[in-house]
Description:
The chain has helices at residues 2-29, 37-48, 56-67, 69-78, 85-93, 95-99, 101-120, 135-152, 282-290, 325-337, 359-369, 397-403, 418-430, 512-518, 554-558, and strands at 209-220, 223-230, 243-250, 253-260, 271-276, 296-303, 315-321, 343-350, 373-379, 411-417, 438-443, 493-497, 503-506, 536-545, 561-563, 568-576. It is α/β, with parallel strands linked by helices. Helix 5 runs parallel beside helix 8 (135-152).
Amino acid sequence: MTTTLSQLQAHDASNGLANIMFSIFVAIADSENDIQPQEVRRFQALLKDPSWTDNEDALDALHIMRADYASIWAAYEAGSLKVDFDTLSASLADLDAGLGETRAASFKRSLNRFLQQLELGGSYPALKFNMGEQKGRAKARAQVESLLSDETADEAASVPTSEPRERPAHPPAQALARTGNRALSSTRCIWPATRLAPQGDHLWQGVRTRVRCVGVRQETHDCKTYTFLAEPLVLFDFKPGQFVTLELPIDGRLLRRSYTISSSPSRPYSLSITVKCVEKGWVSNWLFSNMQVGTELDILGPSGGFTCVDHPADRLLFLSGGSGITPMMSMLRWLNDTSTDADVVFMNSVRTPQDVIFHQELLHLSAEMGERLQLAIVPSIVPNGLAWNGLHGRIDEAQLRSFAPDFLEREVFVCGPNGYMDAVRQMLDGLGFPMERYHDESFGGSVSKIPPQALAPQQRPNSLPADPKESQPIRLPVATVETTKEKPRAGAAEVTLDDTDDVFLVQPGQTILEAAEQNGITLDSACRSGACGTCKMRVLSGQVDMEDTGALSVEEVSEGYVLTCLGTAEGKVTLTT
């Protein structure tokens, strides 16, 4: 038990040091709320190449920032990671108590070296940190230099440049958590599984992957779970709650549809999706009628940022409606498999008691997790003659307060149909819930509409095989699409794909994705609304405009990535994957 406590405290200490280093960077680069892409790239270069320091605490902090880069930026943008000079000064002053004088002095010298590397430009020596710098940046840099100078001036003469790397058994972590990032400080230590990154040559690389269906399980009368193995075999590495995009070449058309992964990354040998028949859900209904053991197809992913892994907390609240249970199930399975110490309240809203997806497994998980899981299955309708003793009706304030009276103190994850999502969001907002701790994933809003003509007659939604057991497994071919190139109009842009040397015109008002498809060029895509990130490409030259960055992270935007489903081109543009 002593070893575990020491490890948890060490994780918390490293998070505090990572926050200090990150705060130094943004305190200068974003001092006037106009951080520049080249500054972010220099910062990233120092994270990727830590050869500028041999200090163990600094190396641990850099590792934390690399592993949690997107989460740290998200916390900063949401305001939960507080960055100001008073907080930074207090954190630096607490280092002696947290690390001991010797380790603290060595780490502070590494912070000075970090600041110098930022000024020199790291891997970009031609771009000086103060080139074109405004007065606000210069003032902020001077303040940081003053803080570091005050902390290290008296110590530099007496402390050797190379410090021993022994650590105290129990470094006081509380002194290092002042940066205010709730998701990256004290709560992080209770989720040690987030620190375990799978490694090896057989990991899923997140590219187009051929998979084979090895299992089909009926969940309800209109919902099935499909389980896949990769061909060749890989270990599926993803975050619970993420989704994949299926490619289905049907009747000469390449149809793509995104589905949440319902299995857990803690069981990496196979990957499962759970699909429900829906009105006008042409691809979902085709899968329900035709997908069987032996079917082969390609998948893209994983994608998506709806995951509890990026927002660890002591207490979680899961709210799902209908098939919105699928990401919750992935997260719940992961939390259970990893013995993660989180208190979970899960309210699963369904139409009737017969529509509960994963019903038996939910009951099993409730028994296995014990006090760590409070489960409520809430049908909106209970048919006459059917016994039901639990909550029922549509989710409202009374239900929420009765089952999760401490909901204001929980990290909330919500998923379901658009109407359900809107009702829950409005209810929580009206009750004063801190919306920076609200995370959602909508089902049914951002999906390409596939006309029924896109499916062959024998594959349309209402044509189930007479006897699926006698049907032969399907090996889906590569689709070919016949198109005609449009003549250029005034103001048309020219896009070149660096990977294939394809060149096509983008007419005014067209997105790059629309123009590519019109010219017979297939680009990766799925949701077509910017929500999934499948269509991202990097701009090598030229200008691409987007009204919204969609699923792109701050890091991806700074590296020049755009979404072709949202982006419009101007002049001559060169893109690469």
